[in-house]
Design a protein that fits this description.
It is globular, with a radius of gyration of 23 Å. It has twelve helices and 14 strands. Strands 3-2-10-11-12-9-13 form a seven-stranded mixed beta sheet, with helices on both faces. A three-stranded antiparallel beta sheet has the order 5-6-7, with no helix packed on it. The protein has a two-stranded antiparallel ribbon with strand order 1-4. Helix 8 runs antiparallel to helix 12, helix 9 (about 350-365) packs across helix 12 (about 415-440) and helix 11 (about 385-410) packs antiparallel against helix 12. With about 450 residues, it is α+β, with helices and mostly antiparallel strands. Bound molecules: flavin-adenine dinucleotide. Flavin-adenine dinucleotide binds near residues 1, 116, 169, 257 and 293.
C-alpha cells in the first residue's frame, strides 16, 4: 500500500488494520535495469502537509484510532522518527480481516454474509436495496456497491461500462527470498515485461511477472516464460527462491491475473454508489488500487456526513454530491491511473521507440533530485497533480531523445532525428489518450 493509502487509513481511523499481520514497512522503490540499479526513497513527510489529512468526521472517537502501535514486524518508534513517509506490504487477506473486525466493532454495523444476486428498484429505476441469495431483500436509502474487479453491478452505470484487459500478471510466492534492497518494492526491467517483487511477511515475498498478452497465458507458455526469460533476468540473490517456487510444480505454482483498466464514471443512478474496483481500475504495476479506493472512501464519507439522514434519499441532493465526488476524486485518480498505464507501456517496451523511452526513463531516475522525487511523489499518491505527471513524462521523453542523439553521434544524426520524432509521437500516444479520458470522463 502506497503512503497515500496509509494516510487515508489514518483519516478513516482504521490504520490499525495493518497491525499484527506481520506487515513489512516499505521505504521506497528499488529499480533495476539491465544489471544497473538504484533506490528511490518515498517522499519526506513535508509532502503530507500539502494534502488533506484531516480525519473523517466521527472516525476518531477514542483518540488513538489514527495511531499505529509496534508489533512483531513494525517498529513505530523508528517509523515516527523517520523523515520520510512509508508504505507497507502485507498479506491482503489478513489486512481485510482486520478491516472487517474494525467495522464490526462499530455498534451500528450489522454483518450479513451472502451472495448479492440483484438490486431492488422502483418503477423509475431508483435503487432501493439488494437481493441476497436464500436470504431475501434488504432495503436502504443508499446502496453502496463494492463488488470489486469482476463487478456484476457496475453495468448499472451503463451497458458500455466495461473493463479493458491490457496484459496479465503471473504471480508466485517466494519463500525466504533474499531481497537486493530490503524494505523496498522492486521493479526489475529488461527485455522481458516488468517484474514486481515485494516482501509481504518475514518469510514470504510476492513476485508478479507481467506477461504481454490480452489472453490468459497457457500453462506451458507461462512456465517457459518464467524459466527462460524471467529467471535469468532476476537479480542473483532472488534466483534461488524463484527456482524453488517454480520447483513446487502442480497447479499451485503460479496464479495468472488479468490487469484490467476502467475509467471512473459519475455515480448518477439514484440510490446507488459504486466505489473501489467496481468503479475504477488501473494497472496494478504501480500498486495504487487500494490507495485510490481508500481515498475515495475518505472523500465519500466526508461528503455523506454533510447530508442529514433524512436527505440521503433525496435524488437531487445526492446527484449533486455524486457529481462533486466524481470531480473531487479526479486529482488523485487521474495521476495514479494514468501513471500506471504510462509506466507499464514504458516498462514493458515492446517496440524500438518505447525501448528508447524505457532507457531514458531509467537514466532520468539516475539523475536523482527532482527526477526521482517528482515521479515517486506521484507514485506514492502524495502529489495528486496531473500537471506534474505531464511534466515528468515529457521530461523523460526529451531526455531519452537527448541520449539517443548522443549515442548516434554526428554521423547518425539523421537516423536519431527520425527516431526521436517517433519517440515523441509514441510518448504522446502513450500518455494523451489516457490522460484526457481520465480528465474529461
Ligand atoms: C495482481 C494484482 C495486484 C495488485 N496489487 C496491488 C498493490 O500492490 N497495491 C494496491 O493498492 N492494490 C493492488 N491491487 C489492486 C487492489 O487489489 C484493488 O484495487 C482492491 O482490492 C479493490 O478493493 P475492492 O474492495 O474494490 O474490491 P475487492 O478487493 O475485489 O473486493 C470485492 C469483494 O466483493 C465481494 N463480492 C463480489 N461480488 C459479490 C456479490 N455478488 N455478492 C457479495 N459479495 C460479492 C468479493 O468476494 C470481494 O470480497 C492489485 C490488483 C491485482 C489484480
Amino acid at each position: 500500500m502506497q503512503p497515500a493509502g496509509l494516510k487515508a487509513l489514518r483519516q478513516l481511523g482504521m490504520i490499525k488494520a495493518i497491525s499484527n499481520i506481520e506487515a513489512i514497512h516499505v521505504d521506497g522503490y528499488y529499480i533495476s535495469y539491465q544489471g544497473e540499479s538504484l533506490d528511490i526513497p518515498y517522499p519526506d513527510k513535508s509532502y503530507l502537509k500539502r494534502i488533506d489529512t484531516t480525519p473523517v468526521p466521527g472516525a476518531i472517537q477514542r483518540g488513538d484510532e489514527d495511531k499505529l502501535v509496534s508489533d512483531s514486524t513494525l517498529d513505530i518508534q523508528e517509523w515516527d522518527a523517520s523523515p520520510t513517509t512509508k508504505g507497507v506490504a502485507f498479506q491482503h487477506g489478513e489486512f481485510l480481516m482486520n478491516l472487517r473486525a474494525i467495522c464490526l466493532a462499530e455498534k451500528n454495523v450489522t454483518k450479513l454474509e451472502g451472495n448479492v444476486t440483484g438490486l431492488v428498484k422502483d418503477e423509475f429505476g431508483k435503487v432501493l436495496g439488494i437481493k441476497v441469495a436464500n436470504k431475501g431483500e434488504y432495503k436502504a436509502k443508499i446502496t453502496i456497491n463494492c463488488d470489486g474487479i469482476f463487478s456484476k453491478f457496475r453495468k448499472e452505470l451503463g451497458d458500455d461500462y466495461v473493463t479493458k484487459v491490457g496484459s496479465y500478471f503471473i504471480g508466485l510466492d517466494l519463500v525466504d527470498a533474499q531481497m537486493p534492497s530490503p524494505n523496498h518494492g522492486h521493479v526489475i526491467l529488461g527485455d522481458h515485461a516488468p517484474v514486481l517483487v515485494y516482501q509481504i511477511s518475514p518469510h514470504h515475498t510476492r513476485i508478479l511477472c507481467a506477461y504481454r498478452s490480452t489472453k490468459v497465458p497457457k500453462r506451458e507458455e507461462a512456465l517457459k516464460y518464467l524459466t527462460n526469460e524471467v529467471l535469468p533476468a532476476l537479480p542473483l540473490s532472488l534466483q534461488p527462491s524463484f527456482k524453488d517456487a517454480l520447483d513446487v510444480g502442480g497447479p499451485e505454482v503460479y496464479r495468472a491475473m488479468a490487469n484490467q483498466y476502467l475509467t471512473a464514471r459519475a455515480n448518477t443512478v439514484p440510490g446507488l454508489i459504486c466505489v473501489g474496483d467496481s468503479l475504477n481500475m488501473r494497472h496494478p504495476l504501480t500498486g495504487g488500487g487500494m490507495t485510490v479506493g481508500l481515498n475515495d472512501a475518505v472523500l465519500l464519507t466526508k461528503m455523506l456526513s454533510e447530508i442529514p439522514d433524512e436527505d440521503l434519499g433525496n435524488e437531487d441532493i445526492m446527484l449533486d454530491k455524486m457529481l462533486s465526488f466524481h470531480s473531487e476524486r479526479k486529482s488523485l485518480d487521474v495521476v495514479l491511473n494514468t501513471l500506471s498505464i504510462a509506466l507499464y507501456a514504458l516498462f514493458a517496451a515492446d517496440n524500438q521507440y518505447l525501448k528508447i523511452l524505457q532507457r531514458g526513463c531509467f537514466a532520468y531516475f539516475l539523475r536523482g533530485g527532482d527526477c526521482t522525487s517528482g515521479p515517486i511523489g506521484l507514485l506514492s499518491g502524495l502529489v495528486p497533480d496531473w500537471f506534474v505527471l505531464f511534466k515528468h513524462f515529457f521530461a523523460v521523453a526529451f531526455y531519452a531523445c537527448y541520449l539517443n542523439f548522443v549515442d548516434r553521434g554526428i554521423l547518425g544524426f539523421p537516423v536519431a532525428l527520425y527516431e526521436n520524432i517517433s519517440v515523441l509521437v509514441t510518448a504522446a500516444f502513450v500518455l494523451f489518450p489516457y490522460l484526457l479520458t481520465e480528465l474529461f470522463s
